[in-house]
Amino acid sequence: MNLLLDIGNSSVNWAKQEQEAFISSGVFSYTKTNFEKEIIENLSSFEKPSNVLVSNVAGDSIFILLNDWTKEHWQQDCWQPCVSTHYKELTNSYEDTEQMGLDRWLAMIAAWEMNQTALCLVGCGTALTIDLIDASGKHSGGYIIPGIELMQKTLVDNTVQINTNIRTMPSIEYAQDTQTAVNNGSFLAAVSIIDHTVKTFSDESNSGVKCIMSGGMASSIKSLLNHPFEYEPNLVLMGLSMLHKARQ
């Protein structure tokens, strides 16, 4: 059994894998101060895995904490790949691959491996990321903006008169109060950039573009979009598994 972990900035997606199938999966939240506690509470009951595969975008200190715990608990080091310039026909547009988040690269690997067509990939986490891949496998580039909650938190933290609780109610309707205006404005910003990007890339591609979405806020944003998106919650973990298999 392999244990796969996708560590974002505020949550961890996990899956147990036997052969090539995910037999169970889940998600838990954490903060920088309680990460080890959450690891113990959520993972300590698992049987010893053959491999611990990790995608981590939360910084070296989080990876070190995890690796120290897996070595002590399971006598097992974690395996984490690096972003590279290519994977099979898929080519990365970044000249400095270290600037790209590993989760984005793994999502691209999984989506390309399964579809091999023009793709728009949207990750809806603390940050909202968009990546575009043409029909030949070339990564055209993408965008990064604050996610829904981060947009609202930034606004509340940096203004005096906008003193409201953060909400995540999917709506882009006109608002008649400040709390709703902040909520709906953040969703409208996310929806607008996604729909605009899909339309522009589809026009440039002169062909259909398959759209795939992942991340904790995906289902809320997906319901408001003009363009149809597939929801794949384990896209990063799937890419992690594929890359590990290719490296063996």
Short description:
The chain has 248 residues and is of the alpha/beta class. The chain has 7 helices and 12 strands.
How would you describe this structure in keywords?
Nucleotidyltransferase, domain 5, five-stranded mixed β-sheet, alpha/beta, 12 strands, 7 helices, single chain, 248 residues, 2 domains, 25% strand
Describe this structure in words.
This protein is of the alpha/beta class and 248 residues long. It folds into two domains: 2-80, ATPase, nucleotide binding domain (Nucleotidyltransferase, domain 5, 2-Layer Sandwich); 86-241, ATPase, nucleotide binding domain (Nucleotidyltransferase, domain 5), CATH 3.30.420. The chain has seven helices and twelve strands. It has a five-stranded mixed β-sheet with strand order 3-2-1-4-5, with helices on both faces. A five-stranded mixed β-sheet has the order 10-9-8-11-12, sandwiched between helices. Strands 6-7 form a two-stranded antiparallel ribbon. β2 (11-18) and β3 (21-29) form a beta hairpin. α3 crosses α7 (235-247) and α4 crosses α5. It is globular and about 55 Å long. 35% of the residues are buried. The mean pLDDT is 95.
Helix and strand topology:
Blueprint: E1 2-7, E2 11-18, E3 21-29, H1 35-43, E4 51-56, H2 60-74, E5 78-79, E6 86-87, E7 90-91, H3 102-115, E8 119-124, E9 127-133, E10 139-146, H4 148-157, H5 178-205, E11 210-214, H6 218-222, E12 230-231, H7 235-247
Parallel strand pairs: 1-4, 4-5, 8-11, 11-12
Antiparallel strand pairs: 1-2, 2-3, 6-7, 8-9, 9-10
Helix pairs in contact: 3-7, 4-5
